[in-house]
């Protein structure tokens, strides 16, 4: 084959990834997404029940009958797909209803839906900012924020994760470089670490330096705050944040879709110019309808958040007592720090032997040498499931030599 050198190079790259213990293996799930799942295990694909400790199913809505009923109703009434981008003929009344609902929920003027939050973040910065501007980004921001910033011509500044002194240094640098507009961009919750951004200080610094604040609250909407409005509610800065982005693919049912909530003019400019919005198909009506039901449940059932919080506290205190090194604080993302990528893979395999699904995260998803098992708690865990999870993690930690 005349392109053989190309394919050889791809094979060599894959071999290199494998040699470093960085190959990601996908588990085939044959049941609904839930606390207990059925997986098809190779080579015979026999069905194995596992306890799922790594889903973004924070509120247990991924298989919630009311969401499924809303999706089915929308399938019957609005059909399967829109077969268009939004501005040609892809806008259903459900899209407008969800945009209004999300804007109200997040206390912003307006909202615009995307196929994913990844798209929302990649279409945001280049539409709103240009060469004379500056973006100041947290070093642990999600890949989609990083990519979105790369697409934008604004000058880039980076501050160390949640380090407010460094943020101020970067703000001062952008100011003295005479940036026209300055935007601070941060995750509300840092998804690999399970920590919450210091939004009160970020907003204070933004006010002092005349900067805008953008928060990606993908891991916090539905999860944090008394009413589930996210880290911005949890940190009491709802009306001090200019732009909120988020996903429908985690706490709000876990299907797919993302959004930007902001002032009416910002949202209107995104509708006119944002490339992933203009050039990508509209969200399916069934997802839009189910997301409206998810928001009803987030508002009407705060007990889900309370159960989630209680489960997360019990889980992390039991693991700390057992001798694990945990990261995270105040959020149901509870990473178990391991360090070496191969050790993290071995721990993940030991967990699988205990019937627990929890993936290892290593470079490039987290910094080299900081491999971990990221566990995520859910309100769908009842007492028995939680006890089973704790016992299984401890047994796996012992067999993999993570704890004594
Ligand atoms: C902070 C953050 N932003 C954006 C995304 C992407 O969301 P979506 O799956 O909707 O593209 C994720 C999901 O991994 C995330 O954790």
TrEMBL record:
CDD domains documented for this protein: KBL_like
Binding site for pyridoxal 5'-phosphate: 117-118, 191, 216-219, 247-250, 280-281
Pfam families: Aminotran_1_2
Listed pathway(s): Porphyrin-containing compound metabolism; protoporphyrin-IX biosynthesis; 5-aminolevulinate from glycine: step 1/1; Amino-acid degradation; L-threonine degradation via oxydo-reductase pathway; glycine from L-threonine: step 2/2
Claim: Acyltransferase is one of the keywords in the record: yes
EC nos: 2.3.1.29
Cofactor note: Binds 1 pyridoxal phosphate per subunit.
GO BP term (any one): L-threonine catabolic process to glycine
UniProt superkingdom: Bacteria
Example GO molecular function: pyridoxal phosphate binding
Binding, substrate: 142, 374
Catalytically driven reaction(s): glycine + acetyl-CoA = (2S)-2-amino-3-oxobutanoate + CoA
Family designation: Belongs to the class-II pyridoxal-phosphate-dependent aminotransferase family.
Subunit architecture: Homodimer.
Name of the molecule in the record: 2-amino-3-ketobutyrate coenzyme A ligase
């Amino acid at each position: 084959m005349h392109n053989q050198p190309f394919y050889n190079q791809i094979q060599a790259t894959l071999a290199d990834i494998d040699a470093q213990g960085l190959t990601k293996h996908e588990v085939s799930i044959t049941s609904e997404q839930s606390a207990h799942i059925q997986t098809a295990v190779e080579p015979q694909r026999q069905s194995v029940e596992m306890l799922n400790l790594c889903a973004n199913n924070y509120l247990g809505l991924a298989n919630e009958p009311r969401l499924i009923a809303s999706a089915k109703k929308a399938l019957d009434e609005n059909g399967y797909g829109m077969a268009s981008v939004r501005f040609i003929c892809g806008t259903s009344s459900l899209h407008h209803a969800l945009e209004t609902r999300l804007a109200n929920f997040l206390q912003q003027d307006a909202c615009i839906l995307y196929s994913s939050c990844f798209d929302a973040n990649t279409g945001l910065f280049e539409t709103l900012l240009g060469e004379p501007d500056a973006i100041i980004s947290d070093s642990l921001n999600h890949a989609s924020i990083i990519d979105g910033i790369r697409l934008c011509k604004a000058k880039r500044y980076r501050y160390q994760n949640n380090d407010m002194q460094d943020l101020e240094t970067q703000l001062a640098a952008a100011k003295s470089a005479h940036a026209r507009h300055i935007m601070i961009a941060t995750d509300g919750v840092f998804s690999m670490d399970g920590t919450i951004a210091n939004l009160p200080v970020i907003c204070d610094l933004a006010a002092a330096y005349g900067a805008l604040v953008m928060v990606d609250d993908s891991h916090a909407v539905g999860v944090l705050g008394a009413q589930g409005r996210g880290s911005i509610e949890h940190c009491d800065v709802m009306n001090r944040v200019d732009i909120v982005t988020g996903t429908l693919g985690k706490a709000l049912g876990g299907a797919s879709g993302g959004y930007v909530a902001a002032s009416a003019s910002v949202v209107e400019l995104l509708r006119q110019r944002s490339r992933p919005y203009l050039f990508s198909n509209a969200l399916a009506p069934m997802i839009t309808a189910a997301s409206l039901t998810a928001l009803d449940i987030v508002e009407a059932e705060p007990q889900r958040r309370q159960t989630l919080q209680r489960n997360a506290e019990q889980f992390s205190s039991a693991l700390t007592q057992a001798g694990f090194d945990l990261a995270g604080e105040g959020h149901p993302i509870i990473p178990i720090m391991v360090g070496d990528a191969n050790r993290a893979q071995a721990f993940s395999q030991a967990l699988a032997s205990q019937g627990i699904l929890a993936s290892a995260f290593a470079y490039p998803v987290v910094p080299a040498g900081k491999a971990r098992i990221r566990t995520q708690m859910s309100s769908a865990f009842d007492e028995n499931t939680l006890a089973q999870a704790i016992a299984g993690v401890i047994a796996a930690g012992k067999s993999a030599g993570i704890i004594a």
